[in-house]
Amino acid sequence: MPQATVNGRQIAYGDTRGDGVPVLLVHAFPFNSTMWQPQVDALGSRYRLITPDLTGFGGSDAPEDRSAYSMDAWADLLAGLLDELGIDKVVLAGLSMGGYMAFAFLRRHRRRVSALILADTRAEADPPEGVEKRTTQQGLIEREGTSGLIEGMVGALLSESTRTNKLDVVDQARKAMDNPAAGFIGGLEAMKGRPDSSDELASIDVPTLVIVGENDAVTPPDAARKIHEHVGGSRLVTIPEAGHISNLESPEAFNGALAEFLGSL
């Protein structure tokens, strides 16, 4: 996987160099860019799919300092990566935490976004109980490492149908969650500190696709409908039987929604 130095950090990324429009795919927590493999395999020759590892994940730098992690820092990192690749504008796609980062990218680098894909995410900030839960998870990782949290997240993030009938997807998800402990802690810190983006939804003026798994228990369909209702002209696609990681759980349906949307631009 190639690497670039951006803002003093090493960032690993994939680049299919396909012929079509460039699409920046930003991964969920606590995954890395390998979660996008089904999209790379199916669409990578038709579109230029760029799949970075955010700071703390995959092959990118994973600093121990929690202050190195924020949605704004990640947004600036990815803007710098686009500079390194000579790309001015992208279709920006983020799933879950990647969606949180997409809102920061819009605030800081709006002119670089030609279209937007928000998958299994929400606009709201964490409520107090959510912040407390993430703080507890940080303490658990500091004491015991990441393995216990990964096993718990398999159950929370993937639908019952996936866990029962798609054991290969469960294994793929576990592997994509095998990231440095510093990245887990930093990612939790970034999510705790992110602002509420609800009031910004109505100002989004680029073509927007909203995707959600039918059985997403983390950011349920109601959260996706709220985004859809407030972003003028947006499209909403619900993926049957999928949970929170809908691109891995039902790649054919997810890829079909992506291809249809990208083909309309």
Task: Walk me through the topology.
Layout: E1 3-6, E2 9-15, E3 22-26, H1 37-43, E4 48-52, H2 71-85, E5 90-95, H3 97-109, E6 113-119, H4 128-144, H5 147-157, H6 160-165, H7 167-176, H8 181-192, E7 208-213, H9 221-230, E8 235-239, H10 246-249, H11 251-264
Parallel strand pairs: 3-4, 3-5, 5-6, 6-7, 7-8
Antiparallel strand pairs: 1-2, 2-4
Helix pairs in contact: 1-11, 2-3, 4-8
Instruction: Give the terminus-to-terminus CA distance.
Output: 29 Å
- By CATH, the architecture is named 3-Layer(aba) Sandwich
**CATH overall fold name:** Rossmann fold
Number of helices: 11
What is Rg? 17 Å
Q: How would you characterize the largest beta sheet?
A: 8 strands, mixed
Quick one: CATH superfamily?
Alpha/Beta hydrolase fold, catalytic domain
How much of the sequence is in beta strands? 15-25%
Count of DSSP strands: 8
Q: How many separate domains make up the residues? A: 1
CATH class: Alpha Beta
Q: Which regions have little confidence, pLDDT < 50, spanning 5+ residues?
A: none
What overall form do the CA principal axes indicate?
globular
Which class of secondary structure composition applies to the elements?
alpha/beta
What is the string of SSEs from the N terminus onward?
EEEHEHEHEHHHHHEHEHH
The level of helicity is 40-55%
Q: If strands are numbered along the chain, what order do they take across the biggest sheet?
A: 1-2-4-3-5-6-7-8
Q: What value does the average pLDDT take?
A: 97
